[in-house]
Amino acid sequence: MMIEVEGVQHRFGAKGEGLLALDRIDMQIQVGEMVSFIGPSGCGKSTLLNIIGGMTEPSEGQVSVAGSKIQGPLPRKISYVFQESALLPWATVLDNIKVGLEFQGVDHQMREERAVKALTSVGLMKFAHAYPQQLSGGMRQRVALARALSLETEVLLMDEPFAALDEQTRMVFGEDLSRLLARERKTIVLVTHSLAEAVFLSDRIFVFTSRPGRIKAVLDVNETHPRDPAFMVSERFATLRNKLYELLREEVLATMREDMPGLRP
Ligand SMILES: Nc1ncnc2c1ncn2[C@@H]1O[C@H](COP(=O)(O)OP(=O)(O)OP(=O)(O)O)[C@@H](O)[C@H]1O
Ligand SMILES: [Mg+2]
């Protein structure tokens, strides 16, 4: 088992009297599995990802990664890709990747080697010496992914890494990620709002309820990696996507009633 979440509950605010964001979450994620979290805005997906990554301590319950209890960030085991690429604007693409490796204490020669390998795997070696502002948003996200890959952690956590990209770019990016998954046995947790992305990329999809977030359903996708683009237009894909929408629709409506009263009758 790579990730084990047991009885996690999280309440924000002083003395645990604030908002209940997550309630009784239990999940087990296998080594090499690719899972997605999907659910209405504010249901606690990012909170749970941060708890798994050791950045937020849960009010109750615990998380283990590769058998050890999480008590803080584990930069050698777990890497992150965020919605905004957060690259250093004054450093070249290659140096942006090397900085992360330097923090990990990787020696000079090895830094170069691993940065080149990671950049090659996302198809951006040609831009190694460019600066982030010379790249498109999609390319910057690829660099952010390369930076996370170069750390060679067993676990990769991604919080809406493609959210700022147009749909075509994110689908192509998704195909690349699927190929990469087939090559490297990484355990990946992806937070996404895209139904198609969740179905196309995941082995399993965790569907969350409206806040406080609970696991409403777990969908099995049962399709090997790398995923063929033809999968996206298959009947099975459509069935899964519709099922996902059916599960999510009432949760999204519940969130709207709670957080945006007056918007809908
Ligand atoms: N640091 C914080 N302090 C207080 N409340 C917070 C904090 N972070 C998040 N929350 C609240 O906890 C709830 C869950 O937030 P979270 O960011 O985990 O949701 P999410 O599912 O990732 O939403 P989205 O899809 O919009 O990113 C929200 O209602 C949010 O307002
Ligand atoms: Mg979020």
Model description:
By secondary structure, this protein is an alpha/beta fold. It has 2 domains: 3-77 and 155-259, Rossmann fold (3-Layer(aba) Sandwich), CATH 3.40.50; 86-152, no CATH class. It is 36% helix and 22% strand. The chain is built from 7 helices and 10 strands. The strands form 2 sheets. It has a 6-stranded mixed beta sheet, with helices on both faces. α2 runs parallel beside α4. The longest helix is centred in the last third of the chain and has 25 residues, at 235-259. It is globular, with a radius of gyration of 19 Å. The termini are far apart. Bound molecules: adenosine-5'-triphosphate (ATP) and magnesium ion. The site of adenosine-5'-triphosphate has 12 residues, from α1. Adenosine-5'-triphosphate binds at residues 12, 19, 21, 39, 41-47, 211.
Quick take:
By secondary structure, the protein is an alpha/beta fold.
Comma- or semicolon-separated keywords:
globular; binds adenosine-5'-triphosphate; four-stranded antiparallel β-sheet; Rossmann fold; 265 residues; 2 domains; six-stranded mixed β-sheet; alpha/beta; binds magnesium ion; 10 strands
SSE order and pairing:
Elements: E1 3-11, E2 20-29, E3 34-38, H1 45-52, E4 60-65, E5 68-69, E6 78-81, H2 93-103, H3 108-121, H4 137-150, E7 155-159, H5 167-183, E8 187-191, H6 195-201, E9 204-208, E10 215-220, H7 235-259
Helix pairs in contact: 2-3, 2-4, 3-4, 6-7
Bound molecules: adenosine-5'-triphosphate and magnesium ion.
